Amino acid sequence: MVIPIGKPDTSSKKVINIYNQAWAEWVLHPQQVTVETELSGEFQFIARAADSLLQVHNPEGRFLVLTELQFKYDRTMPARFAAYAALARHKYEQAIYVTVVYFIPPPAGVNLVDAFHQEFMGQAAHQDFQSILLWEVEAEQVVAYDNPALLPFVPLMAGGDTEQMVRRCAARIRQEPQAAELETILAMFAGYVLEPAVIKQILRWEMAVVQESPIIQELRAEWLAEGYEKGHEAGIETGERKATLEALRQILTIRFKVNLSRFDEPFERLEVGVLKKLNEAALTVESLDEFEKVLAGMLSKLEETDDE
Questions:
Q1: Buried (b) or exposed (e) across 208-237, using 16+ Cβ within 10 A?
Q2: What are phi and psi of 23, to 5 degrees?
Q3: Is the peptide bond before 148 cis (omega within 30 degrees of 0)?
Q4: Beta strands in the chain (DSSP E)
Q5: How many other C-beta atoms are found inside a 10 Å radius of the C-beta of residue 118?
Q6: pLDDT class for 157, splitting at 50, 70, 90?
């Protein structure tokens, strides 16, 4: 059973941001390209931004590479991809190449398409896109390719769901300057295919790695910014609370494969400081039962305080 972990799309976009040249080389292989810059994927007419928009060049000239990361199937995907491509083409006045990366297979009976096509009153709208299905990509070939941008996704690839393969990815990732961040993302996806105890042995899930991960830091910054925009202390505290809960949920999901909403009710009653202590407990306890005992103790103290 696939259990959603944290924010896979957010984490994956960060990988492309760090390794945009390596990512473009993989998407456009065997073409030789050079990334010139990463462009804004925000468009005036729609609320959601494109996941990654790179300006590249090759011997044929300069063009755009739009990448969309699709974790779960959504029937509106083809129309949305076509809209992003059209808006990017209009905004930057360049040709565009569109790639969609699918993380997990769609529901049974659903066929993924490689184009958006619509005809109405004699007029046609059409946009092709390259589809990369991670579950069909051979993990062994990706590891041999030695592209650091791809290593965090290996657990979702064909043959990548083994302890040996995750260990190989972790060892290679630790040679990178952004090792802590890449290892955090690798742990997230490994949580789909390996037992929490195995992940704990392979990957460094100490408090510092999780809490200081650039992913968590970025989420914290976003949520704190939301608080500042609200213009009062309560809003800032809400942002910090969201960031702390995000880290806690990631740890619990990866270590014990719990549903993200399992502890929502008790967590709602706890202050930020207590939630931070729970983060530490989630990383150090040996079992989910032990964590639940720690949580029960904190809730009991809270009730005692309320009764006074």
A1: ebbbebbbbebbbeebbeebeeeeeeebbe
A2: -65, -45
A3: no
A4: 34-38, 52-58, 61-70, 96-102, 115-120, 123-128, 130-133
A5: 12
A6: very high
The one-letter amino acid code at 156 reads L
- Taking only the tens place, the pLDDT of each residue in 50-105 is 578 888 998 888 999 898 888 777 888 889 889 888 988 988 899 999 999 988 88
Q: How far is CA 242 from CA 9, 35, 187, 229, 237, in A?
A: 17, 35, 21, 15, 9
Average pLDDT over residues 212-217: 50
Amino acid at 287: S
Amino acid at 193: V
Residue 217 CA, chain-centre distance (Å), reads 14
Domain spans of the chain? 8-136, 205-308
CA distance 5 to 199: 14
Report which of 138, 158, 25, 7 is spatially closest to residue 69, judged by C-alpha positions: 7
Query: Is this prediction's pTM over 0.85?
Result: no
